[in-house]
Amino acid sequence: MYWVRRSAILLVVLLCLSFVAWSVPRILDPTSKDAEKRAKDQRWVASSPYFLDRQLCRWISLCGIHHIRKDPASHGYDWEDDLDDDEYDDDLSGELRRVRAWDEDVVAPSGKRDVLQRRRVLKEVPDYVYRYAPLVHLYSGEEFWPSDIREHLEHMTVYQDSTVHNSTEWSLHNLGQLNKLNGMVTMHSNDDVESRPPWLHSHNNIPQPFEDDPDAGGSPPARRPYKEDLPNREHSTWYDTNKDHPVHRLSDPRKYGSSFDRSRRNRYLTKNPLEERGHKPDSDGYSRAPAVLVLVDKGEGVVDAFWFFFYSYNLGQTVFGMRFGNHVGDWEHFMIRFQDGKPRGVFLSEHEAGQSYVWDALEKSSTGRPIIYSAVGSHAMYPQAGDHPYVLPFKLLKDVTDKGPLWDPGLNNYAYHYDYTLEKEVEESSSAKRRPSLVAAANNPQAPTSWFHYTGRWGDEVYALSDLRQWRLFGQYHYTTGPTGPKFKSLDRKQLCKKDKCLVGYELDPKRSWRD
């Protein structure tokens, strides 16, 4: 009986472990996996040269546990030694000279711009987009700062299905040509990322400090319950619209008046927006790494302004000293939805999802610009400073934000207009007559557009289980695959969120989940 009892206990323990190993990965990653993904996972597990490792991985979701070790953000490298003092000259930085590495590819062979290029110059960025551009608090202890996508490409090699494609020099001008390749296309770092090469940190792109605190004098966020239904509080369906679903008026507009002159709907900039800051552009908050601004017209006076921020490296968070979620290349974004030039709502990207709020809920600067926060390592966007737990209970996994260096992406950015309705037209028409879905704005008419259409990944493919840098516990990888680019962040969305069901907050709630 003694052995029967012990065997029964052992069986129960094994069943419990099996259930935990089966359920935890599904809780942490609720997305369904098709047959192709399951087959790919089986190949990943089979890459381990050790029989015991493969069995532990298959049966109790403990993969590569012999690889587990500390993964510090940096190795004590003194990055300041690599900086030239001249680079921080106040007069030079005050010029805010944008690097225009694309000039050589603009003019047609005839020496004249073609019709499409001339058309690009005509479309300006509305003045209200820069007036309400976000101010981003980067974390004070950040190790991986904003990066320039052009410089990022200089340190990457294109891989097709885990094999080097060729030695072609890829740039922002021709990156879209990689879409002709079959299979999975990724960019692979030329350096071992665990050696922490300087370009991965992008210390040169730390924003210039503000002389005056832009937070001073800002109005506090409105205090309203965030769970109330939008249709009961709003006068129109600005929060759920695109060109296929026009805005509907929910009440008589004469009862409320208008705080914005509709005649200004098509008012555009006729000068550099930075000139409003003084005779000489101010360097406060300037970073050498340009943000990417993509404007999407949803019709009926509704415009979504997507501010994309790129980082060469995403440092994952730690649980019990083990780090999860590292990947090369990191795209985050902040979207403002305007209606007739007035900001109405926002979306902040956080990991696979994000949060949405009405405009009045956000913290503002003294000039009325929204203030948002970038989490340390992951760069997830949040509306306030502090701890932001996600996925795991008891705050085991959390993002952290604070009032670190303030970045003003409005001072240096690549600006574009994107018409998602032309995507099908582009696919069906000939290359000679097609209308491009993405065109550069007038303040940077020569900006490249090919990179935007690149469908591959901006970082390394998930490392194999045989790689000494890799491990996976309960479905969570130490290193994951790099992200796709801005085009694939649901730019055609109807609602503020990327998903169909969207909970829009009227009040900042520190307990609110990024899955809401």
From TrEMBL:
Span of the signal peptide: 1-23
Keyword Signal: yes
Pfam annotation, one family: Vps62
Sequence ranges of Basic and acidic residues compositional bias: 225-255
Transmembrane portions of the chain: none
InterPro entries, A to Z: Vps62
Source domain of life: Eukaryota
Region Disordered: start-end pairs: 188-262
Keywords, alphabetical: Signal
Name of the protein this chain belongs to: Vacuolar protein sorting-associated protein TDA6
Source organism of this protein record: Clonostachys rhizophaga
